[in-house]
Amino acid sequence: MNAPGKMVKVNDTYMHIFSISPSTTAMHHPIVFLSGSGTECPTYDFKPLWHLLKDRFHIVVVERPGYGWSGQTSHPRDIDTILAETREALKQADIAGPFIPAAHSLSGLEAIYWAQKYPDEVYAILGLDMAVPQVYRIMEIPKYFPLLARFGHLLRRPLAAAMVKNHPAVKNNLLDKTEREAMEVITSRQLLSKNMMDEIDYVKENAVKVENGKCPQVPLLCFLSNDKANMKAVPAWGRIHREYFSANDNAHFIDLTCGHYVHREAPDIIAESIIQFL
């Protein structure tokens, strides 16, 4: 099964970089989509949003090890390793910055850390209901999560079929038959992968490291959902984000009435807002 993008060697594995080259009228700075935890097929998961932006911007989706068409890695899932892999994968794919990370959920930590550590490489940040480090002071990982993962592995094929069938990219006919079949295979293969589980083990440690750095000063557009699960786990979800970025004079927030996967549920609003912002 051929990957839709480029496979590049990073450390002990291969990473998949999906890229739509910009037209002559497109903005030069690439929008780099970074998926949240457990998003098995990021390239197609983000399509409801990126297909609305591809004529104006250079679109890139980075699939971390254990996600999408990427392989598994034996390297630890600390934030420095994850960011180094992203930067090396972009380099190997001949994609130059400055970049505009578009971070969903957990990958908000990576986007913030990127701007902290290499500010010249980050032109702006787009937060797709992204996480900020303080969230993980409050959010607890369920003790039954490892058991849930094992159960999920046993039912990966029927779960993958149901997940893909109900995905907005499929329901809205954004994928052809070959792409739908590929998404189902990839979802089944990567469902609760080892690297995904390892990321969860490192998340508290990674959040502390990012929190110890300064608030990024790059332009920020942050979309915030009223997702019931997030609000239950972190009741002050929106307030925490606004407080964290209060030291950034160029931070903008848009509240959405939808679930956590904002790029699936409100792509039209988000796309238009990104176009105006950038």
Automatic annotation (TrEMBL):
Domain AB hydrolase-1: from-to ranges: 31-272
InterPro entries: AB_hydrolase_1, AB_hydrolase_fold, AB_hydrolase_sf, Epox_hydrolase-like
Domain of life of the native organism: Bacteria
Keyword presence, Nucleus: no
One Pfam family, short name: Abhydrolase_6
GO molecular function: hydrolase activity
Keywords (A to Z) from UniProt: Hydrolase
Protein name (database record): Alpha/beta hydrolase
